[in-house]
Amino acid sequence: VRCWSNIPFITVPLSRAHGKSFAHRSELKHAKRIVVKLGSAVVTRGDECGLALGRLASIVEQVSMLQNQGREMMIVTSGAVAFGKQRLRHEILLSQSVRQALHSGQNQLKDMAIPVLEARACAAAGQSGLMALYEAMFTQYSICAAQILVTNLDFHDEQKRRNLNGTLHELLRMNIVPIINTNDAVVPPPEPNSDLQGVNVISVKDNDSLAARLAVEMKTDLLIVLSDVEGLFDSPPGSDDAKLIDIFYPGDQQSITFGTKSRVGMGGMEAKVKAALWALQGGTSVVIANGTHPKISGHVITDIVEGKKVGTFFSEVKPAGPTVEQQGEMARAGGRNLAALQPEQRAEIIYRLADLLTDQREEILLANKKDLEEAETKGRRLALPLLKRLSLSTSKLNSLAIGLRQIAVSSQDSVGRVIRRTRIAKDLDLEQVTVPIGVLLVIFESRPDCLPQVSALAIASGNGLLLKGGKEAAHSNQILHHLTQEALSIHGVKDAVQLVNTREEVEDLCRLDKLIDLIIPRGSSQLVRNIQKAAKGIPVMGHSEGICHVYVDTDASVEKVTRIIRDSKCEYPAACNALETLLIHRDLLRTPLFDQIIDMLRVEQVKIHAGPKFASYLTFSPSEVKSLRTEYGDLECCIEVMDSVQEAVEHIHKYGSSHTDVIITENEKTAEFFLQHVDSACVFWNASTRFSDGYRFGLGAEVGISTSRIHARGPVGIEGLLTTKWLLRGDNHIVSDFSEHGSMKYLHESLPLPQRNTN
């Protein structure tokens, strides 16, 4: 027997013992029976007199949606006192005599005092109206609701507790939503409280404990407590250093400070935490979240059930490592220390990492072998292109090491490079210098070789780095990250690169706008689109599609055409820089060159899709393309016919993705027209699309290929991971000295740049 609010309560439910609560947010989607507790601040209006009808309607809609999914929903609600107060105030005003109102004068009428309303009377007047409102709202979703009023005394009597339990189970069996509230009309008088301006508020703390009791009693999987704050903070919300606690563990309450309670109610956050911990010990998972914020209240309940990072999640399972928020802070601090190193020291770290890739190749390949075996045997057999990306080899590691050494060389003159110097006035000089962006989040799929590449670029540019790899490469990523931190340790900046191993959803990571400055996705077009959609306030560098074109002009060389097309399409068809659409000049149809192209594609087993114009020329055409804007990522491509280079440019602009586009021709004038007019990140003449790559460009490696028009475009190396800041050096200068009658004049003279280190 446990005691809660001075009331003995048996923690073991009547029918069976509780199971364990969910350990992770991602498991909340499996919750079957859910209690939603609505605090007074959620249900009532800002003037604390009457109900927040729009907010309440949104909550009912979410509860109805979950109920119609087959879940069993229960609501513990406040609001009867506020609703009753509204009705009684209205009645009192109407009962004033007309004569008294007329003789009092307008100003006196406006200031007329409303008598103090007894809270139990307010509750009695408000209960029926509150329930009628719930019934009307739930009826819109073809759901029946039932009211249950309880008092603390109902938990003293064993028979009453059994009756309550049986009633609730029967309502749930009939697909009815129970709406539970304390019977505030008959409870003992409360202590006076001024929050409701003359109305004593009853039982908010009791409603917190009531929700916890019912959750445990009814073997509930999840208790959602909605209040007017985002969740639990490590210090009072609103203070400068207050941070939302994502996951709260039993025992952590000693490390936090409770502030004042909500604008209405008796309990406050401390009561909610106690109730939550009590429910957690009884086997019920708990989330405390904001039910009043206009931007999230419309989906806060469904977001919680879907496992999204909303509010504070109470868990008994404490992870061994740091949280992702802590990792973000570590990466921020480590990145700043990294940027403060000398260029030679950053280069030394990268050289060390390159050496480790070759020295520890056996350990790396052994870990990679585990990933490949699990991909084959654990029921998640990957497609062949993904398996190829997942696989590491000695030659791949050697190539990685060579690329890293190139990065080390180029890192000597990256951070702190002066790119502009201006003399503003005498003894007032301005410099624009390169600096790191801050903290990068790189999300990558099935590409363990991406980890050391991106790490080296982050080190060279002085950026902190959060890495989120796919679970299919977990063993490979773990050893590669360990080696990266070993290299960073030689100059004491181990924390600058962090590997996220917690069960964080990508969508949740994309919301950490206070920790992350830039997101770089490396993976499928679907991954990139999902991240671009999920990112809230954080810029995303990358491309969602790689629809690359090769245009074969009428003046193309026979020797070059098949070589370039074969390499562009067949060398690595899953790459984002592989050929997807082949554009052929109309005059080349039914020529030996055209036949050679088709024969080569057939030999390479490339499936051909005909564009609309190409299909019109053929009696028996290949399957007509469903869309000219398709990234196949396999041995497939579309062929379309063009009347001119101008039409080819227009086609690329209409159907391309601004990634990489190629012209094959011996006509220099035509080639230059193509190069100047195609608006893509990479435009080539007589070269394979596959050259669009950071390593092949001499950047050492790339964090990705960007089709954005801001900051960085094309393969992104060190330069794309830098921004700038302005340094102004003066000597007692003030702006008023440069006014019309001031003593100084602007010079704005360009000064020579310091000589770059080219060694």
From TrEMBL:
<dbReference type="InterPro" id="IPR001057">
    <property type="entry name" value="Glu/AcGlu_kinase"/>
</dbReference>
<keyword id="KW-0028">Amino-acid biosynthesis</keyword>
<dbReference type="GO" id="GO:0055129">
    <property type="term" value="P:L-proline biosynthetic process"/>
</dbReference>
<dbReference type="InterPro" id="IPR005715">
    <property type="entry name" value="Glu_5kinase/COase_Synthase"/>
</dbReference>
<dbReference type="InterPro" id="IPR016161">
    <property type="entry name" value="Ald_DH/histidinol_DH"/>
</dbReference>
<keyword id="KW-0560">Oxidoreductase</keyword>
<keyword id="KW-0547">Nucleotide-binding</keyword>
<dbReference type="InterPro" id="IPR015590">
    <property type="entry name" value="Aldehyde_DH_dom"/>
</dbReference>
<dbReference type="GO" id="GO:0005759">
    <property type="term" value="C:mitochondrial matrix"/>
</dbReference>
<comment type="pathway">
    <text>Amino-acid biosynthesis; L-proline biosynthesis; L-glutamate 5-semialdehyde from L-glutamate: step 1/2.</text>
</comment>
<dbReference type="InterPro" id="IPR019797">
    <property type="entry name" value="Glutamate_5-kinase_CS"/>
</dbReference>
<comment type="function">
    <text>Bifunctional enzyme that converts glutamate to glutamate 5-semialdehyde, an intermediate in the biosynthesis of proline, ornithine and arginine.</text>
</comment>
<comment type="pathway">
    <text>Amino-acid biosynthesis; L-proline biosynthesis; L-glutamate 5-semialdehyde from L-glutamate: step 2/2.</text>
</comment>
<dbReference type="GO" id="GO:0005524">
    <property type="term" value="F:ATP binding"/>
</dbReference>
<feature type="domain" description="Aspartate/glutamate/uridylate kinase">
    <location>
        <begin position="32"/>
        <end position="290"/>
    </location>
</feature>
<comment type="similarity">
    <text>In the N-terminal section; belongs to the glutamate 5-kinase family.</text>
</comment>
<dbReference type="InterPro" id="IPR016162">
    <property type="entry name" value="Ald_DH_N"/>
</dbReference>
<comment type="similarity">
    <text>In the C-terminal section; belongs to the gamma-glutamyl phosphate reductase family.</text>
</comment>
<keyword id="KW-0808">Transferase</keyword>
<dbReference type="GO" id="GO:0004350">
    <property type="term" value="F:glutamate-5-semialdehyde dehydrogenase activity"/>
</dbReference>
<dbReference type="InterPro" id="IPR001048">
    <property type="entry name" value="Asp/Glu/Uridylate_kinase"/>
</dbReference>
<dbReference type="GO" id="GO:0004349">
    <property type="term" value="F:glutamate 5-kinase activity"/>
</dbReference>
<keyword id="KW-0067">ATP-binding</keyword>
<dbReference type="Pfam" id="PF00696">
    <property type="entry name" value="AA_kinase"/>
</dbReference>
<dbReference type="InterPro" id="IPR005766">
    <property type="entry name" value="P5_carboxy_syn"/>
</dbReference>
<keyword id="KW-0511">Multifunctional enzyme</keyword>
<keyword id="KW-0496">Mitochondrion</keyword>
<comment type="subunit">
    <text>Can form homodimers/multimers.</text>
</comment>
<dbReference type="Pfam" id="PF00171">
    <property type="entry name" value="Aldedh"/>
</dbReference>
<dbReference type="InterPro" id="IPR016163">
    <property type="entry name" value="Ald_DH_C"/>
</dbReference>
<keyword id="KW-0521">NADP</keyword>
<dbReference type="InterPro" id="IPR041744">
    <property type="entry name" value="G5K_ProBA"/>
</dbReference>
<protein>
    <recommendedName>
        <fullName>Delta-1-pyrroline-5-carboxylate synthase</fullName>
        <ecNumber>1.2.1.41</ecNumber>
        <ecNumber>2.7.2.11</ecNumber>
    </recommendedName>
</protein>
<dbReference type="InterPro" id="IPR000965">
    <property type="entry name" value="GPR_dom"/>
</dbReference>
<keyword id="KW-0418">Kinase</keyword>
<dbReference type="InterPro" id="IPR036393">
    <property type="entry name" value="AceGlu_kinase-like_sf"/>
</dbReference>
<feature type="domain" description="Aldehyde dehydrogenase">
    <location>
        <begin position="324"/>
        <end position="589"/>
    </location>
</feature>
<keyword id="KW-0641">Proline biosynthesis</keyword>
